[in-house]
Predict the structure.
Amino acid sequence: MAVSEKKFEHLKNDKRFSSELKKIKNIYKEIPDDKKKLVQRLVENASFMAILLEDLQEDIKQNGYKEEYKNGANQFGFKRSIAADLYQVTIKNYSSVIKQLNDLLPNNEIEEDDGFEAFVNSKNR
């Protein structure tokens, strides 16, 4: 089933989403140009999930992590809230998307010579 672009049109007008999208795009601006089109959806999904996580956190703060249930006359107790379940799933997915984006960044680590290798090699002689 194809997802209609119109369903997500309202997100373009959401200031929180726009701000998060801008922030994430800025963080991952170093992704090579040939991969930018591939990651556009990942960046949008990460932005959406970041906003969703904020909303879920607020719900959990206000309503708690658990909720009461009742299944008939004698079956009742507490269970994890829907917001808590959604948060748990969403945070895993968000972490996965961020990891995928991080893996696409060019490796710009420059090893500085701190003298350790020379020290170890001098002791082995």
User: Anything to note?
Assistant: The chain is about 60% helix and 10% strand.
